[in-house]
Amino acid sequence: MTDFTLHTQDTAPETSKPLLDNSLKAFGMVPNLHAVMAESPEHLEAYQKLHELFQKTSLTPAQQTVVWLTINVEHACHYCVPAHTAIAHMQKINAGVIDALREGAPLEDEKLEALRQFTLKVVRQRGVVADQDVERFLNAGYSRRQVLDVILGVAQKVMSNYVNHLADTPVDAPFQKFAWAPAAAAAE
């Protein structure tokens, strides 16, 4: 594993320092993911901007959680699953929904399940989603705008999930109680 620095205000490149300030203001700490990303100010800035934009989409917080956790589990991200679990609990998302998403299990709510299935199709098929799958998503009550909103969420999570795989980013203390491993690894 390649060693990546967990940057602080003292060690970060000069142009990353205001971005780390943004993280501190938003989260009350600098998440380790952001500390790693600070190595590339452009990467950290892009990630922060995508996060901000995704939160402004037409998707509700519960729907955003479905997109984030579905992608994080599919990508087997040891860091983002606990982080987004903590965020989901802070947002008071239904615990049963959170648990099912962490397990990669179907959701009881049909509309949220349609979103989970569509998100999986986008990720697994790298955006080459069959017309009937898009129509199924639209028929579940979503819009064409939300097709694009899901893709925005995928772009954001690719950035973080891939960084965490390469850097083996340590899970921050506030997220450790939501530690997660893929089902196959947990069974070993």
Compact description:
Helices cover 63% and strands 0% of the residues. By secondary structure, it is mainly α. It folds into 2 domains: 7-56, Single alpha-helices involved in coiled-coils or other helix-helix interfaces; 60-182, AhpD-like.
The level 1 CATH classification of the largest domain is Mainly Alpha
| Mean pLDDT metric | 95
Instruction: Give the DSSP E fraction (strand runs of 2 or more residues).
Output: under 5%
Report the major sheet.
none
CATH architecture of the largest domain: Up-down Bundle
- Order of helical and strand elements: HHHHHHHHHH
Question: How many DSSP E strands?
Answer: 0
N- to C-terminal distance: 22 Å
Tally of distinct domains: 2
CATH homologous superfamily descriptor of the largest domain: AhpD-like
Low-confidence stretches: none
List the helices and strands and how they pair.
Elements: H1 17-27, H2 32-37, H3 41-55, H4 61-74, H5 80-90, H6 95-103, H7 110-124, H8 131-139, H9 144-167, H10 183-187
Description:
The mean pLDDT is 95. The chain contains ten helices and no strands. It folds into two domains: 7-56, Single alpha-helices involved in coiled-coils or other helix-helix interfaces (Up-down Bundle); 60-182, AhpD-like, CATH 1.20.1290.10. The chain has helices spanning 17-27, 32-37, 41-55, 61-74, 80-90, 95-103, 110-124, 131-139, 144-167, 183-187. It is an all-alpha fold and 188 residues long.
